[in-house]
Amino acid sequence: MEELRKRAEESIQKTYHKRLFSPFAKACKKYKLIEDGDHIAVCISGGKDSTLMAKLFQEIKRHRQKEFDLTFLVMDPGYNKENRALIESNAQALGIPITIFESTIFDAVDTIEKNPCYLCARMRRGHLYSKAKELGCNKIALGHHYDDVIETILMGMIHGAQIQTMMPKLHSTNFEGMELIRPMYLVREADICAWRDYNDLHFLQCACHFTDTCTTCHEDGTTSSKRLETKKLIAELKKTNPYIESNIFSSVENVNLDTVIEYKKGGVRHNFLDEY
């Protein structure tokens, strides 16, 4: 196990430094995700993204650019014994000192027919906020990556008739003083998979009661089919436009309000005719 931990950490420091640690550190600095005095609950679902995020947090803390504390938080929403054991064994092998707490979210959403994934995601986040605050944390960190961001932008337009993005950080509306941060914001999913495969690691996919084969369930509550469909669309567009991914990402950084018919700010709708 010690050998596995060392190999995983060395691969972050050397082989995948530019592809993993550099974009992680860049996001933390660009979006001011880590500040002196922070106590961050690093939320680990057992998947590749959140587990790598935990290792990247350990690495950036080692650099001592900021003084902050970490709690590696795992919520068991009703996993079976095998999935729970996989999370625990991976954490032990990789040297991640996890704090586990239990909930009954899976049972609660089992009887829900409409949008169970959305309800599950909302409930999971609420439980994470609550436990993190109880442990003295002021932030929770989730493992959403760059590909999640661009897929969300495109899905919002195609399926939600809106232009919005998955923000790098948010103030909680229900838990005063708490923030949500996404330090994997600039990390590509392909690089996460490459690190996983390089170290021959095996992680939890989706362990909900609705499917045992889902590989694309996300915390934002979107269904796997819609996200997978969007992922395939982006891959198809990339065949003729190699810049498609960065263009989608940059589109929400380059919004020109002079060419927008309507937009909302603080819940208030503004129309271009207001100042025409």
Structural summary, described in words:
This protein has helices at residues 2-13, 17-30, 48-62, 81-94, 105-109, 116-134, 146-160, 189-198, 224-238, 244-251, and strands spanning 39-43, 69-76, 98-102, 139-141, 169-171, 179-181, 262-265, 268-271. With 276 residues, it is α/β, with parallel strands linked by helices. The chain has a single domain (2-274), classed as Rossmann fold, CATH 3.40.50.620. Strand 2, helix 4 (81-94) and strand 3 (98-102) form a beta-alpha-beta unit. The protein is globular, with a radius of gyration of 19 Å.
Strand order of the largest sheet: 3-2-1-4-6-5
Order of helices and strands: HHEHEHEHHEHEEHHHEE
CATH class descriptor name = Alpha Beta
How many beta-strand runs? 8
The residue fraction in helices comes out at 40-55%
| Count of individual domains | 1
Class computed from helices, strands and strand pairing: alpha/beta
State the distance separating the first and last CA atoms.
66 Å
**Most strands sheet:** 6 strands, mixed
Number of helices: 10
